[in-house]
Amino acid sequence: AEGGLMKRIIVIGCPGSGKTTFAKRLAELAKLPIYHLDAIWHKPDKTHIPREEFDGRIREIFKEESWIIDGNYRRTIEMRVEAADTVFLFDLPTKVCLEGALARIGVARADMPWREEELDPAFKQQIESFAENTLPEIYEILGRYENEKKIIIFKSRDEADDFLKNIIPYVDKFLYDIKAIDSEVHKKCTGQDNSVILSNLRFLSDNNCKIEIRYPLVKGYNDGECDKIGEFLSDLKGIVKVKILQYHSFAKSRYQALGMTNTLPNTETTYDDVERAVKVLKNYGLNAVNGMTED
Question: To 10 degrees, the CA torsion angle through 104, 8, 82, 94?
């Protein structure tokens, strides 16, 4: 990639290898938008969109200046490699991948529109046959682009973690949004579990990063999370500031203009609401500030 920059990235590899967790952490570190192919392909009712629509949505992503695309879908791997400047391949042992797939059973994930309650036999077979049936084709494709693309292959999750740790010294400060600590409250606000979000924050803290937390305060939704957020953050290293942001409904008109259903909470957060949250968080020894008054 020109100048060593990574702006158009794909992350591929066996399911359960940890590629999605890596992609999310890389997106947070590099401040790049991330797209999960599983979330595009699958519908909540466990059917899927047509291939033509799937391919079209991938090509729409290509038009953006920068992105991370997470997922395999071997039929489209080469078109993504061709559009990317950087490829990360997770080539981990089958046993490790099976353990990874089992570990996420029952966990809500942003990259899937439903919660997996058991390891589907067909999916298990896909993992078990990946090294024999899919990996050789991936290496063949990558071989055709090895002189044009930056290709990084991980043989273990430790190698992936080390790569991320090597990025950290080049970042002065990380901006990190926290909406809730309680998983159910987070799902009420966003529709998604927050386990990976909290795990990524611990990862940054454990690696001595400077972190500015942004807490969007949504009255009636996550305003009861102040103490939990304060307690969680007070145990972490590197939290230099916690900025409480006012929630408003300015985007309501945008939904109307686009003919979309407004999924945002119908509530307003006041200055006094933010001030109360600031006082609570300061009680935990945090440098909490009112985002309504700070430039």
Answer: -20
Is the pLDDT at 259 greater than 60? The verdict is: no
Given the structure tokens 């006082």, which residue do they identify?
A: 279
pLDDT of residue 92: 97
Whether 206 contacts 121, CB under 8 Å: no
Task: List beta partners, residue 148.
Answer: none
CB 273 within 8 A of CB 219: yes
Q: Please report which residue ranges of 191-245 form alpha helices under DSSP H.
A: 195-206, 226-234
pLDDT for 1 beyond 50? no
Residue 201 scores a pLDDT above 80: yes
List, in order, residues 6 or more apart from 101 with CB less than 8 Å away: 15, 16, 119, 123, 124, 127
In the DSSP assignment, the letter for residue 179 is -
CA distance 160 to 162: 5
Fill in the DSSP letter of residue 137.
H
Whole-prediction pTM value? 0.72
Report yes or no: 97 and 127 within 8 Å, Cβ to Cβ.
Answer: yes
CB neighbours of 190 closer than 8 A, spacing ≥ 6?
179
Q: State the greatest distance between any 2 C-alpha atoms of the chain, in Å, as a whole number.
A: 61
